[in-house]
UniProtKB/TrEMBL annotation, chain A:
<keyword id="KW-0254">Endocytosis</keyword>
<dbReference type="InterPro" id="IPR043532">
    <property type="entry name" value="AP2_Mu_N"/>
</dbReference>
<dbReference type="InterPro" id="IPR043512">
    <property type="entry name" value="Mu2_C"/>
</dbReference>
<keyword id="KW-0333">Golgi apparatus</keyword>
<keyword id="KW-0813">Transport</keyword>
<dbReference type="InterPro" id="IPR018240">
    <property type="entry name" value="Clathrin_mu_CS"/>
</dbReference>
<dbReference type="InterPro" id="IPR011012">
    <property type="entry name" value="Longin-like_dom_sf"/>
</dbReference>
<keyword id="KW-0472">Membrane</keyword>
<keyword id="KW-0653">Protein transport</keyword>
TrEMBL record, chain B:
<feature type="compositionally biased region" description="Polar residues">
    <location>
        <begin position="9"/>
        <end position="25"/>
    </location>
</feature>
<dbReference type="InterPro" id="IPR002553">
    <property type="entry name" value="Clathrin/coatomer_adapt-like_N"/>
</dbReference>
<dbReference type="InterPro" id="IPR026739">
    <property type="entry name" value="AP_beta"/>
</dbReference>
<keyword id="KW-0813">Transport</keyword>
<dbReference type="Pfam" id="PF01602">
    <property type="entry name" value="Adaptin_N"/>
</dbReference>
<dbReference type="InterPro" id="IPR016024">
    <property type="entry name" value="ARM-type_fold"/>
</dbReference>
<feature type="region of interest" description="Disordered">
    <location>
        <begin position="1"/>
        <end position="25"/>
    </location>
</feature>
<comment type="similarity">
    <text>Belongs to the adaptor complexes large subunit family.</text>
</comment>
<comment type="function">
    <text>Subunit of clathrin-associated adaptor protein complex that plays a role in protein sorting in the late-Golgi/trans-Golgi network (TGN) and/or endosomes. The AP complexes mediate both the recruitment of clathrin to membranes and the recognition of sorting signals within the cytosolic tails of transmembrane cargo molecules.</text>
</comment>
Amino acid sequence: MPVAASAIYFLNLRGDVLINRTYRDDVGGNMVDAFRTHIMQTKELGNCPVRQIGGCSFVYMRISNVYIVIVVSSNANVACGFKFVVEAVALFKSYFGGAFDEDAIRNNFVLIYELLDEIMDFGYPQNLSPEILKLYITQEGVRSPFSSKPKDKPVPNATLQVTGAVGWRREGLAYKKNEVFLDIVESVNLLMSSKGNVLRCDVTGKVLMKCFLSGMPDLKLGLNDKIGLEKESEMKSRPAKSGKTIELDDVTFHQCVNLTRFNSEKTVSFVPPDGEFELMKYRITEGVNLPFRVLPTIKELGRTRMEVNVKVKSVFGAKMFALGVVVKIPVPKQTAKTNFQVTTGRAKYNPSIDCLVWKIRKFPGQTESTLSAEIELISTMGEKKSWTRPPIQMEFQVPMFTASGLRVRFLKVQRFDFYTLDSTILSKIQCRVFKSLCN
Amino acid sequence: MAPPAASQRYPSPSQPSGKSEVSDLKTQLRQLAGSRAPGVDDSKRDLYKKVISYMTIGIDVSSVFGEMVMCSATSDIVLKKMCYLYVGNYAKGNPDLSLLTINFLQRDCKDEDPMIRGLALRSLCSLRVPNLVEYLVGPLGSGLKDNNSYVRTIAVTGVLKLYHISPSTCIDADFPPTLKSLMLHDSDAQVVANCLSALQEIWSIEASHSEEACREKESLLSKPVIYYFLNRIKDFNEWAQCLILELAVKYVPSDSNDIFDIMNLLEDRLQHANGAVVLATVKVFLQLTLSMTDVHQQVYERIKSPLLTLVSSGSPEQSYAILSHLHLLVVRAPFIFATDYKHFYCQYNEPSYVKKLKLEMLTAVANESNTYEIVTELCEYAANVDIAIARESIRAVGKIALQQYDVNAIVDRLLQFLEMEKDYVTAETLVLVKDLLRKYPQWSHDCISVVGGISSKNIQEPKGKAALIWMLGEYAQDMSDAPYILENLIENWEEEHSAEVRLHLLTAAMKCFFKRAPETQKALGTALAAGVADFHQDVHDRALFYYRVLQYDVHVAERVVSPPKQAVSVFADTQSSEIKDRIFDEFNSLSVIYQKPSYMFTDKEHRGPFEFSDELGNISITPEASSDIVPAQQYEANDKDLLLGIDEKDDNKGLSSNNGSAYSAPSLENSSNITSQMQELAISGPATSATTPQSSFGFDDLLGLGLSTAPAPTPSPPLLKLNPRAALDPGAFQQKWRQLPLSLTQECSVNPQGIAALTVPQSLIRHMQSHSIHCIASGGQSPNFKFFFFAQKESEPSNYLAECIINTSSAKAQIKVKADEQSTSQAFTTVFETALSKFGMP
């Protein structure tokens, strides 16, 4: 059975109850106290997100400064439980507009209770789609889609949609300007040897979309994915176009994508939800081309001084450029004073995250830039505390470049109802977590 | 809802005490109750909000119940909702007052707005007051027939709620059959899904005392129903899909076409973004193909990549849930994941619970080809700032070494750890070196020279210290200053707080004494004197025991305390394969996370309500399962360190003057064993070592020392004649295998010729066939082969099913037998073993 949550609690970091919703009687009333005393006030908190106390299991997640706790007494489905929490938080965010934290919950607790009533009944998850729920639960208060009073905008056939099959989109949307935005965000995990050889590299990517389209459009997305292209050329019985194709290790799609069609024709076709959503996720381990090379050298000069040199080289085409490059170079906790020199951009020491943060607004291709810093450490008594040299992190965007080589070949709107598309396709890459092993 | 009294015990400073506020609210609400002035709804809203927020933080606001109900006559939906929420929370505690609400709820149930009808119906069912159920039946009945699907979904869940308040009312009103017809005919997907979950719960509870419900429960699993759901699965939302997939797991397909149809239909579900859907699909695939070994392997290959994607995306908690399942699969089929080991490398910013799981997986997938890289990576982690992870990774290195791959390099690495000069690293490493020495005595020379250089003063942790002391005792002849180190330690007896260390100190002094008597005599005397005076019962007992044995005869003492060591070939696995299979059956649930079957952590009445054959299995299996549980639980509770635990057990076999607390030795057999054991010890010494190949029970029956001879085989079981032409189709086999309880588990060794012949697994199948035992499925790769056999009695159609797992490297076979007739299963097992033992013989 999927999660049959007996109760859901929202707590702040101190353990005060923000929301307390019991769905079933099979857990005792003092479960929140049990969670507080046996989990929150012990070291167990960060150890495991699933804990058992007495006959009950606590499945919990921390999201900003709030703990969301699901209590179950049966042998529940944990993956489902976590997914439910994640989806519920996304739903709340779409209602509050932005942050989900203690204040937002306190300000909207009535709304949250209303939503909790709708999204779960007797412990079984119901419809969590913001699109549909927004039809009858609104921030201003509830308005009934069924009420006979005329509204500014008639909602056609709302009855069906409350529980209907196309759960992610409502009918009757109309935009003056029809727009589609598409972003590719990739996170690269890289391990380099001291000589700059890549030891390991993998990419997890997401295709994010923002749709503002009228009616019920049917979109089709073409990627330069190997299987898809082969299939296409096979169907049209002509040789595949030359150009680089890439092999995706694995793909998962948003529920709006017609999976049967993906499997038979290898095309990504879908009726998009309105607004922002994550269309697909993929994973690649081979053939990753990196836009940057990072060459760090770190010298420890005695007990209280260190020298850090980081050279960043851009290896993408000279006509392209990277935007918003941020390099985070970890330094030991006991850093006292830092001096830097940078060839481009700006750097500063951020003691709260123990990093030198080096920002470069625009980084052209085929260039290099260096940071050299001298770091003075507070001398410590006793044995030498070893510093583990955490990985250097780097974030940036390179328009029209992806580490995986994934490219959007086309995005077609197949059902033109009554509008033309003012489409903007924007492809960018954000890379995170560069792990490099120095020396 | 938290009873106010309980929550108020922990009032936070910022929370108001509540009393005066509540009475204020009461008067204000009363003023508003009758008013029809414009704007009154807004002020009501504010008041209601206050009430709800007090309720949330645990202040008892039940005293305003009457006023809340009076104010509820309003057309504002928000107000109504807040009122419903309030009533739902306090109705149970105020059954009399709840009667007041029935009226307005019933009225709302007939409202022309479906939204209000639905809300009112939901609240009505959430009152949970037993004496009000009569008021529920009417509205529920009309709710189920409502022309609006929103109301119907709520009514369906309402029926389930009613059932939990009063089963008889629900059954008498004939709701289950209504739900069933709704489930099969309603046009709305959510209504259908709710019907399914409600019916599953109701019928599985009813099934225990009603045959009809039992039949209905079975009918949910009939082919038409399953196909009806699976064909429509895309119409359902993701949560309902999980529900349907969970149902499909229990379906027993009629033939292999059936299986492939289902898998083809569901394959695209593996691409779903919702991890829960993917896991549920994976479960369906795995369970369907259990009997088809090669397809089962392919399924592993197919599901690998979606699962790995899910691990790397989503929040750490989600990946933890997925990783736990992946862990289970990796342990079941390590060779399939052997090339993917890089996916299990830890990332710097992952939480420790994720890292821990990944370390375990790295240990599991290590084989000849990847050990070097894995161990290199693990050594990186050993320098980690997170001490817990550093420890885990050192243990992981040790476990890999014990798996026999590339021991040479690993020993070097371990010895390098000792040079890192960090307390915890040294302590963990010592424990490992000790375990390694027990398995590979040939390395003693290298290790001892390094270990000898470690000063015992630098080791604070009891486990590390105990390990060092054990080595000092065991290798006293190779370490020149062993007696003097021991002497030093013994002199500080009083400062040694851990009983475990003191116990080891006693034993080590004894062992050292037998090897280098002149140098140790004084120290041993001091140790025994201190031990006898020790306040800890075990230490006291052990010292006394040593003293008396020495007094009786020094040579006997030597044979008891310091027998020639035999290398340990296989360390005991904490979990029996029966338990592992059970966890596998409960894939995609908490069992996998906790790594124990659900019956261990949920009470009978709390157990997941929809378990078919499992339920049957559980009940009948308890007697023997309980003996399996004991050690596993004890490990959980007392001893997180598996390896050390085993070591202690090993020592206990030699000494075993203690059976208990400090050592957390599992008392598998009854405590009455201790005495018999002691006698046995005195008489025969530790000659019966569990490592001899004959006693295939391995370490499972540690304290049952020498028990391998004790339980004499049942006196001449009646000879069983098997039908040489028995027939059983795979589907029926699978169904039987799921339904029948396990009647016997047996381990036996296979003769070397047999192992040699096993290079062609078919040979065993032919061999067993000649003994009228037929193979239905087989598979596996060296060193593990798995066979499913069945046989039939010659005279009557009574079946025996057997699972046989043969490990060629240890030359052991594990046999699980299930039988239609429990009484004859022992006889069958004997026949089976006899047949197996003849395998490979000319």
